[in-house]
Amino acid sequence: MTARIGVITFPGSLDDRDAQRAIEIAGGEPVALWHGSHDLDGVDGLVLPGGFSYGDYLRAGAIAALAPIMSEVKDAAAQGMPVLGICNGFQMLVEAHLLPGGLIRNAHQQFIRRDQRLRVENNDTAWTSDLISGQEIVIPLKNADGGYIASEDELDRLEGEGLVVFRYVGVNPNGSLRDIAGITNERGNVVGLMPHPEHAVEPGFGPDTAVAMRSGVDGLSFFTSAIAAVVGAAA
């Protein structure tokens, strides 16, 4: 079978086409979905892309979390469908309470963009099975509201239950508590992170210069992992 992965476009989405291309390169079939719809079109997985949905009014991702299609996203996530929130999509997931914690303005109060080193802390999710625990990867990062926060008790729970999926290495670019760059839910099907794996799926279009030191395809494993999870579940 060919895994059909939906990418939801919200007003202000910037990286939806990039996510669709990443899915296609990984061997899946990208399916364009619209925020105002209640139809997931029979997809096998979902990506909530980066951007500035609804202009980031109120809080980043807060209005998008109430979009009509999010009712279906919540139901699909509860049934175990792989769901990935990238940057603004991660903000949507926490605002929709599909992931715990919150995301606030970067500690230095400035928009940041850089090729960011990450350490894989948990490769036992629908989106990280093709990665190796402890592996370091380089993924582009671009955000203004990327500081991950949660209560000390919640942070201890995330750490204790292995729900931290990615951690910043070398530099903490936005003041995220405990250097957290991405987390998962208990079931491992919903993952959110601030860096952009869809921008590192083919040589020449990701961090592949001598300065960045990597091949530019570290993000591809996110999408091949999800496709493998879908195909494996259907077998």
TrEMBL record:
Organism: Microbacterium yannicii
Subunit structure: Part of the FGAM synthase complex composed of 1 PurL, 1 PurQ and 2 PurS subunits.
Identification of the protein by name: Phosphoribosylformylglycinamidine synthase subunit PurQ
Catalyzed reactions: L-glutamine + H2O = L-glutamate + NH4(+); N(2)-formyl-N(1)-(5-phospho-beta-D-ribosyl)glycinamide + L-glutamine + ATP + H2O = 2-formamido-N(1)-(5-O-phospho-beta-D-ribosyl)acetamidine + L-glutamate + ADP + phosphate + H(+)
Pathway: Purine metabolism; IMP biosynthesis via de novo pathway; 5-amino-1-(5-phospho-D-ribosyl)imidazole from N(2)-formyl-N(1)-(5-phospho-D-ribosyl)glycinamide: step 1/2
Active site, per annotation: 87 (nucleophile), 196, 198
Subcellular localization: Cytoplasm
Enzyme Commission number, as recorded: 6.3.5.3, 3.5.1.2
Keywords: ATP-binding, Cytoplasm, Glutamine amidotransferase, Hydrolase, Ligase, Nucleotide-binding, Purine biosynthesis
Its biological purpose: Part of the phosphoribosylformylglycinamidine synthase complex involved in the purines biosynthetic pathway. Catalyzes the ATP-dependent conversion of formylglycinamide ribonucleotide (FGAR) and glutamine to yield formylglycinamidine ribonucleotide (FGAM) and glutamate. The FGAM synthase complex is composed of three subunits. PurQ produces an ammonia molecule by converting glutamine to glutamate. PurL transfers the ammonia molecule to FGAR to form FGAM in an ATP-dependent manner.
